[in-house]
Design goal:
The complex is a heterodimer of chains A (382) and B (602). Chain A is an alpha/beta fold and 382 residues long. Chain A has helices at 39-56, 76-89, 110-116, 130-135, 142-155, 172-182, 202-208, 217-233, 253-259, 290-300, 312-323, 333-336, 344-352, 367-370, 373-380, and strands at residues 10-16, 18-19, 31-32, 61-68, 92-102, 120-126, 158-165, 189-194, 238-240, 243-245, 263-267, 272-277, 280-286, 304-309, 330-331, 356-359, 362-365. Chain A has a nine-stranded mixed beta sheet, sandwiched between helices. In chain A, helix 1 (39-56) runs parallel beside helix 2 (76-89), helix 1 packs across helix 10 and helix 6 (172-182) packs parallel to helix 8. In chain B, a hairpin with a 3-residue loop joins strand 18 and strand 19. The chains are: A alpha/beta (382), B alpha+beta (602).
């Protein structure tokens, strides 16, 4: 990958680190919102975008993604400011996807977000069951979530919902039942995540203290298979390990940039970006704590706290592990162009075992292969 | 030349943790051998491993000047002996270089097996023995009881035992006076007779080359003297002659009868210096060597292979360097179908094996796979020949074998009464034959004859866990006996793994095979297909387990912020693969080999 290939896409990610309440399964860089004055953070984000623009040079943005944290805590005006700034600095491609992650509790502001230019809403439903929502530490109930979804559908061109499964003691029947209801809600896109216990999250401590045990791998694998089967049948085929869309135009264009190893500017505390310039590909992380981030931007006009030039091996490993996630896989030539190669013997083994396909140099996982994506990536990558 | 009657050569006998090193340090400090600021804990143990484990591996010696209460100045040569049974021969040579010993016993613990073994060696060497009760300041000290125990168990008079605390310094002055007054000076040696010096030990020094520790019996040892080793026949010309002072070597003009010191002579490896050899003058040789020389024979063997096959040359170089300083460790190249190129190594015992492995990883930064420890079996073949089998993988066709002999030991175990039942069961399970059981107060002493191959696995670990660390253990070898032994093979995914094969008693094979399969089931990570694990004798499978296939290995959420984390995870998996060994289609982590051999059965 020498030089930036615009085919891979260029996106802008904005991290809004505040949440009304920090969820116990979340290990992202987030902070309780309380009654903060967020004006300085917005200013810093806008300045940081300018700093990035100086480094990327002229490009058009394929997508903007406001994630977090909870960006739906932003005001409509703040969101409008960010979108306008990106448009002014880079320019947006026609029909560019502009996503905002939202909490059902913030439905009252959905109309403002739509007016600000957001055209895709990703709604953190997480579950349709009140008891499970409570376990997940969510502040909304199922009824509230459904109302928020109806509101979103009337305001945005594309609406996605998130659900988490493989909760402790969740049976196949429970999940089948819940997912069957979810596919009938009229969302355009489903992100269906197996619960993972991350070291930075409160759940990790709970499991360590043996308050409860995560579902065994065998059972979680069963639920994954149920998910694939049910979502397919309902017209939401998977296009990535945990993501399903009812039509190609509803797939997340912004997330696809990550999986195709494109570039993305990343602003806001702790945001991770990638920037390809000339022969270099940089992995960039913004200062993590909001206070540090503000100081960093004030001092340098950029929030960057660490910059690593990825060597060909690191680039290849990212390409394999990200590329295997999407159903169409990645081109083996992406690796050979880096002067490296995939493990041919393992590719043959896995193809014979029905875990992947290698069609005209395009390496893609099969449905059963996707359950083993991490292992296969480690086996085949240079 | 120091008058003979002003010299005292002595050693300190003690069980681990009974305070030998603390007392030695205190003596060095009180004789002004080292200033307070130069004192580091345990001056004599110089290797990191020695300090950490509180054990002495190489003999050390230090010469101290002590002004006694009688106004005279005496030269005290403290010989620090290796404490562990693996180094029993080195201990005996060290003791042969002294006339007396301090027997240090922790007054809250009492006599332990190791103390017993070494004190008998001192008695054999005709030592005068001064009992010293250490740690008398502890509330748990039982001075009267321990004195009685010394008299009952060891059979020496303990009525005038010294009562000290090496830690606080209490009574250490009485120890110094007792060394002068109660230990004898060196026996008369003839300064004009042909040189006769005992080679006590030797070590490799990066700057000086090999430094040889000697005790002069007759004649004198001088700089530039041409010498000869009587057993090995090697000739050398001496570069330096001197004595050890704490932390430094001091050159002297000559060493004369009764004295302990060192020499260097451009000797390249310690293997050229056999402990126990007699050193004499090349031009005027002694006619008869000193008694007690013994060739050191390794008794426990195992294969060592580099985890990363590319490190074989590094391993070879490291072995060479270790051997410079440790002639008792042997190695020869070995090729294993599964593990590639490595070495079959011989050790004096299990501790020695552990120490060498640890030094290889620590000092040379090598990751190693160690195969199951094995003893040396004698195979009587039908054609009348005798094969010494060091490696179970080399076992010939059983049809050609008439009988197999295995080495036996006599173990001495001291334990508080409450653990005796468990210990007897352990020894019984390991085919032990009880030869003695006696009590001193609430402590039992039990002796068992045991096959060494039952001890090399995890006997010591089991003993420690059964007795909560209170039992002590020592052993002597008592020769080979015929046994009904079979080769137990382990097959992973139908491929034999020779690194895990072992010889075992027929009656124990099934239990051991089952335990091994169960253990491996937990140790081998699940792979993308199911893996049968079998234990077999000949072609017959006697135990079987199956590792089910891994069904899921995938990250649920992976977006821009996860790209770096995902890549680092992949880097880690790749790094982990380097530590794996491929057996057919199955990858077995190196840790599995090590852990599989640490079997906690029962």
């Amino acid at each position: 990958m020498s030089g930036f290939d615009s085919q891979r896409g260029f996106g802008v990610y904005v991290h809004w680190p505040y949440c009304a309440r920090v969820c116990p399964y979340c290990d992202f860089n987030v902070y309780a919102a309380k009654a903060r004055d967020t004006a300085p953070l917005l200013d810093a984000i806008l300045n940081d975008l300018e700093g990035w623009r100086a480094r990327t040079g002229e490009r058009r943005a394929d997508a903007i993604f406001l994630g977090g944290g909870t960006p739906s805590l932003m005001s409509g005006a703040q969101v409008a400011n960010v979108i306008a700034k990106v448009g002014e600095l880079w320019g947006l491609k026609p029909g560019a996807e502009i996503t905002l992650e939202a909490n059902p509790d913030d439905a009252a502001r959905f109309a403002d977000f739509g007016a600000a230019g957001v055209n895709r809403l990703s709604l953190g439903l997480q579950s349709l069951d009140d008891a499970r929502l409570k376990f997940l530490g969510r502040t909304h109930d199922a009824a509230g979530a459904l109302a928020a979804l109806q509101e979103a559908r009337s305001k945005f061109r594309s609406v996605s919902i998130d659900l988490i499964y493989a909760l402790p003691n969740q049976t196949a029947a429970d999940w089948r039942n819940e997912l069957s209801r979810a596919v009938r809600l009229g969302a355009d896109h489903l992100s269906l995540y197996e619960l993972s216990i991350e070291p930075g999250a409160a759940f990790f401590q709970a499991v360590k203290r043996k308050n409860w045990s995560p579902l065994e791998d065998e059972r979680a694998a069963d639920l994954y298979e149920i998910t694939q089967e049910l979502a397919d049948a309902a017209g939401y085929p998977a296009y990535e390990i945990s993501n399903h869309a009812r039509a190609p135009e509803h797939q997340s264009a912004h997330n696809r940039i990550y999986w195709s190893s494109g570039d993305w500017a990343a602003v806001g505390p702790g945001a991770h970006g990638r920037l390809t310039t000339g022969s270099e590909r940089l992995a960039i992380v913004a200062a993590e704590k909001p206070g540090e981030y503000l100081r960093q931007v004030a001092a340098n006009g950029l929030g960057w706290a660490s910059v690593d030039a990825l060597d060909p091996l690191a680039q290849a490993r990212e390409r394999v592990s990200m590329g295997l996630r999407v159903i169409e896989g990645f081109a083996a030539s992406d690796i050979t162009e880096l002067g490296l190669s995939l493990d041919a013997a393992r590719l043959t083994d896995f193809a014979a075992a029905g875990l992947l396909t290698d069609v005209k140099g395009r390496i893609a996982l099969t449905r059963s292969g996707r359950l083993m994506a991490d292992r296969i990536a480690a086996e085949i990558s240079p | 030349m120091t008058p003979r009657n002003k010299i005292r050569n002595f050693s300190i006998i003690a069980h681990i943790d009974h305070g030998k090193s603390t007392l030695a340090d205190r003596i060095i400090q009180m004789t002004g051998g080292l200033a307070e600021r130069e004192m580091t804990e345990q001056v004599l143990d110089t290797m990191d491993i020695e300090k950490e484990r509180g054990i002495t591996i190489k003999a050390q010696t230090v010469r101290l000047d002590y002004k006694a209460k009688d106004g005279e100045t005496y030269i005290l040569n403290l010989m620090d002996t290796p404490g562990h049974v693996d180094f029993a021969y080195e201990v005996s040579r060290c003791l042969a270089a002294c006339e007396g010993s301090l027997l240090v016993v922790d007054s809250s613990q009492g006599v332990e097996a190791q103390t017993l073994a070494n004190v008998y060696k001192a008695i054999d060497a005709n030592h005068e023995i001064v009992p010293v009760l250490n740690k008398v300041d502890l509330p748990a000290a039982e001075v009267g009881r321990v004195k009685q125990q010394i008299e009952d168990v060891i059979g020496i008079d303990a009525s005038d035992a010294l009562e000290i605390s090496a830690k606080t310094g209490l009574g250490v002055d009485t120890v110094l006076e007792a060394i002068v007054n109660r230990l004898p000076p060196p026996k008369t040696g003839d300064v004009n007779a042909p040189l006769k010096a005992l080679l006590v030990d030797a070590y490799y020094d990066t700057y000086l080359g090999v430094v040889v520790i000697v005790r002069i019996v007759d004649g004198t040892l001088k700089k530039r003297q041409a010498i000869q080793m009587m057993k090995t026949g090697a000739h050398f010309v001496l570069d330096r002659v001197g004595v050890f002072q704490p932390g430094k070597l001091i050159d002297v003009d000559e060493l004369s009868p009764g004295e302990v010191g060192f020499f260097t002579a451009s000797i390249k490896t310690v293997a050229d210096c056999s402990v126990g050899d007699t050193i004499t003058d090349e031009r005027k040789p002694a006619t008869e060597a000193l008694p007690g020389f013994r060739e050191v024979q390794p008794v426990v063997f195992c294969g060592l292979f580099p985890v990363d096959a590319a490190k074989f040359d590094d391993l070879r170089a490291a072995m060479g360097k270790l051997r410079l300083n440790d002639a008792s460790f042997s190695y020869e190249m070995e090729t294993s179908a599964a593990l590639g190129f490595g070495f079959r190594c011989g050790f004096l015992g299990l501790l020695h094996l552990e120490i060498i492995q640890e030094r290889l990883s620590r000092e040379f930064d090598l990751d190693l796979i160690a195969t199951a420890p094995s003893v040396v079996y004698g195979l009587h073949m039908r054609d009348g020949s005798l094969i010494e089998l060091h490696n179970p993988a080399d076992m010939p066709d059983v049809m050609a074998i008439l009988s197999i002999e295995e080495p036996w030991i006599e173990a001495t175990i001291f334990t508080p009464d409450e653990y005796l039942g468990g210990i007897l069961k352990l020894c019984q399970d390991r085919r032990g034959i009880q030869t003695e059981l006696s009590y001193v107060g609430a402590r039992a002493m039990v002796k068992y004859e045991l096959p060494l191959n039952e001890v090399v696995f995890d006997f010591y670990d089991r003993l420690k866990s059964i007795s909560k660390g209170y039992a002590s253990f020592d052993y002597n070898q008592i020769g080979r006996r015929e046994g009904d032994l079979v080769k137990l093979q382990i097959l992973v995914n139908d491929e034999p793994v020779d690194a895990l094969s072992m010889l075992t008693h027929r009656g124990r094979a099934e239990q051991r095979g089952r335990a091994m399969c169960e253990k491996l089931k937990d140790l081998i990570p699940r792979q993308m297909f199911k893996i049968p694990i079998q234990a077999a004798i000949g072609g017959k499978v006697i135990a079987r387990e199956t590792i089910s296939a891994l069904r899921k290995d995938v990250t649920a959420k992976c977006y821009g912020g996860d790209a770096s984390r995902k890549r680092k995870l992949l880097d880690k998996q790749k790094e982990g693969k380097k530590r794996m060994r491929q057996f057919g289609k199955v990858e077995i982590p190196q840790e599995a080999f090590v852990a599989a051999l640490k079997m906690d059965e029962d």
